Amino acid sequence: MDVKEIEKRDSVLTPKQQIDRLLRPGSTYLNLNPFEVLQIDPDIALDEVKKKYRRLSILVHPDKNPDDQERAQQSFEIINKAWKTLENEDTRAKCMDVIEEAKARTDHM
User: Fold this and answer.
1) Is this model's pTM higher than 0.85 or not?
2) Which InterPro entries match (predicted)?
3) What's the average pLDDT block by block, 10 residues per block, for the chain (109 residues)?
4) What distance in Å separates the CA atoms of residue 42 and residue 60, rounded to the nearest whole number?
5) What distance in Å separates the CA atoms of residue 9 and residue 44, rounded to the nearest whole number?
6) Phi, psi for residue 62 in degrees, rounded to 5
7) CA-CA distances (angstroms) from residue 94 to 7, 41, 53, 89, 109?
């Protein structure tokens, strides 16, 4: 399944499903990738990243999830961290370097 298919599938998740996705087993490792957290393609423009960030942050916001506030707060913080990483030119460039390196390695397999 490619990134676009995953993005499309996950874009319809409910707030609870998004919280579950962000806090699932192994999420600590997966959430190191801000593109994975925000469910976006690495080549997406910054204004589109911001739209996705806003949509997700509203969806998992603790005030919008009163029955699951603690987990919602954790999810909200994960999404905020991903946005801060991608909105900063230097940290976004570092993420892109890691992705390009990973692509190069998998292309040679």
Assistant:
1) no
2) DnaJ_domain, DNAJC8, J_dom_sf
3) 59 87 92 94 93 96 96 98 97 93 82
4) 22
5) 17
6) -55, -35
7) 22, 15, 19, 9, 23
**Domains along the sequence of the chain with CATH:** 3-107 (1.10.287.110)
Query: Amino acid identity, residue 104?
Result: A
Q: What is the 3-state secondary structure (H, E, C) of the chain?
A: CCHHHHHHHHCCCCHHHHHHHHHCCCHHHHCCCHHHHHCCCCCCCHHHHHHHHHHHHHHHCHHHCHHHHHHHHHHHHHHHHHHHHHHCHHHHHHHHHHHHHHHHHHHCC
From first CA to last CA, the distance across the chain in angstroms is: 18
Structure tokens at 87: 């909105």
